């Protein structure tokens, strides 16, 4: 009886070993698995906000998507928030969905007494950002060596209307070599489904001095742009445009 149970144990062990070996050999593991990491920027301060780093595990561009620099531009921070689950096949995607969390919580452009976050970034080559939050965002762009930066915003009117002083429905980029064709294709893709001419997206250059996109484009060598939807449209439409622009950028870079 004892011999039988010993044999049985041997058979069971051998079978298990064979099973494990066949599983390991038959299913090759990816060379490097993708991963997603949540970090907190401006940690330990009232500005603390989550940032998501999605790594494909393969070499490629570093793209950063920012939402909520202005707290009352909801399509931007909602669309950015939906990008944190994006599967990428190369490079790194960094998403900072609720950059100015305190302003978002109060649904205001900027938090009372703190001025406009999008004018707090350097305006000269050796300049430094103003304030804790701009410093933390600036440090993140440098730390992760961002190549492309999309900042999601909204305007109150259509940029193509002559009476409008708003930049709603536009893409404003900092000119860099080979970047124009990329942003042009984003605009082209969006406009191909818009029939009303004044509702089409405009392609503009030079974001305002002191803005995140201007400073990263001019002083850090990022290919940066602001993407502006128009709040005269339905929220779901604006979120769709924001995500479509972001996904077009990622697909042009062969990341999705
Ligand atoms: Zn804005």
Describe this entry's structure for a reader:
By secondary structure, this protein is an alpha/beta fold. The chain has two domains: 1-30; 31-252, 3-Layer(aba) Sandwich (Aminopeptidase). It has helices at residues 2-26, 74-82, 101-106, 131-143, 179-191, 212-219, 235-252, and strands spanning 35-41, 49-55, 62-67, 92-96, 148-155, 170-173, 202-205, 223-230. An eight-stranded mixed sheet has the order 1-2-4-3-5-8-6-7, with helices on both faces. α2 crosses α7 and α5 runs antiparallel to α7 (235-252). The protein binds zinc ion. Zinc ion binds next to loops.
Question: What features would you highlight for this structure?
Answer:
8 strands; 256 residues; binds zinc ion; 7 helices; eight-stranded mixed beta sheet; alpha/beta
Gist?
The protein has 2 domains: 30 residues; 222 residues, Aminopeptidase (3-Layer(aba) Sandwich). It has 7 helices and 8 strands, in the order H-E-E-E-H-E-H-H-E-E-H-E-H-E-H.
């Amino acid at each position: 009886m004892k011999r039988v149970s010993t044999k049985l144990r041997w058979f069971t062990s051998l079978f298990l070993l064979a099973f494990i070996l066949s599983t390991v050999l038959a299913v090759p593991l990816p060379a490097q698995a993708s991963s997603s990491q949540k970090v907190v920027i401006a940690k330990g301060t009232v500005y603390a906000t989550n940032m998501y780093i999605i790594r494909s595990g393969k070499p490629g561009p570093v793209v950063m998507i920012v939402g909520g620099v202005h707290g009352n531009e909801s399509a931007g921070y909602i669309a950015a928030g939906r990008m944190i689950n994006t599967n990428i096949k190369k490079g790194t995607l960094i998403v900072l969905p609720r950059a100015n969390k305190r302003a978002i919580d109060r649904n205001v452009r900027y938090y009372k007494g703190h001025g406009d976050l999008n004018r707090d970034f350097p305006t000269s080559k050796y300049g430094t950002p103003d304030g804790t939050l701009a410093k933390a965002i600036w440090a993140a762009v440098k730390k992760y060596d961002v190549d492309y930066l999309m900042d999601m915003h909204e305007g109150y009117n259509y940029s193509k209307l002559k009476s409008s002083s708003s930049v709603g429905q536009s893409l404003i980029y900092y000119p860099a070599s080979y970047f124009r064709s990329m942003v042009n294709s984003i605009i082209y893709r969006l406009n191909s489904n818009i029939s009303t001419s004044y509702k089409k997206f405009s392609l503009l250059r030079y974001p305002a001095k002191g803005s995140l996109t201007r400073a990263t484009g001019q002083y850090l060598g990022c290919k940066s742009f602001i993407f502006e939807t128009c709040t005269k449209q339905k929220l779901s439409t604006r979120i769709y445009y924001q995500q479509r622009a972001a996904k077009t950028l990622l697909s042009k870079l062969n990341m999705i």
